Backbone:
């Protein structure tokens, strides 16, 4: 039997927390173990509960933007952090992911997206709402080939190297080489940073 994913919901609006609890209660293997309405309560809940995932609204009292994510990442290395916010600015998405968030979900999205994001968090994959990707149309400051953009989009969607190889009809070794070359070219170091970059380009991620 798969261990339940222990979740803390952090939002300063009680009605939002209740709605999220209702949604999550319909998902197998998900257990809401705590709630918080401000930064201090988030920290208290994390100390009191051995949580796997924090669903975090960055607009709560006591939270100074993405620095709060950095602080959480430093104190709780294994915690998965899923930002849930009304802010769809690509710059904010990028900043949150670079600060250590594992996913970025907007309150403008469909309720079904919660399930997709939770599944990604459980599997250790990044998740970024397509709404944020559509909001960004900037061009890459570093020219990318069509294949590099393909690889980048697949990585941003949580596709593994063997899956990329199968999708593109290339060997796993070649797929790994493409990934390594792309990271070197962009001076990025992990999937979260690649996902953040993909969001800036307006590539679909999630």
Residues:
């Amino acid at each position: 039997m798969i261990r339940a994913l222990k979740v803390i919901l952090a939002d300063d609006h009680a009605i939002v927390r209740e709605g999220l609890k209702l949604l999550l209660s319909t998902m197998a293997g998900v257990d809401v173990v705590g709630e918080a309405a401000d930064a201090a309560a988030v920290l208290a809940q994390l100390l009191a509960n051995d949580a796997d995932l924090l669903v975090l609204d960055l607009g709560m009292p006591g939270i100074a933007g993405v620095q709060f994510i950095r602080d959480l990442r430093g104190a709780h290395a294994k915690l998965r952090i899923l930002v849930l916010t009304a802010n769809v600015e690509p710059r904010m998405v990028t900043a949150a992911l670079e600060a250590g968030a594992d996913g970025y979900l907007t309150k403008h999205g469909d309720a079904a997206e919660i399930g997709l994001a939770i599944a990604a968090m459980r599997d250790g994959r990044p998740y970024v709402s397509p709404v944020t990707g559509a909001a960004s149309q900037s061009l890459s400051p570093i020219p990318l080939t069509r294949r590099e953009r393909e690889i980048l989009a697949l990585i941003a969607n949580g596709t593994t190297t063997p899956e990329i190889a199968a999708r593109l009809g290339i060997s796993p070794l070649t797929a790994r080489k493409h990934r390594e070359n792309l990271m070197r070219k962009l001076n990025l170091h992990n999937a979260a940073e690649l996902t953040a970059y993909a969001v800036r380009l307006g590539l679909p991620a999630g």
Notes: The longest strand covers residues 30-36. The domain at 146-201 is CATH 1.10.10.10 (Arc Repressor Mutant, subunit A).
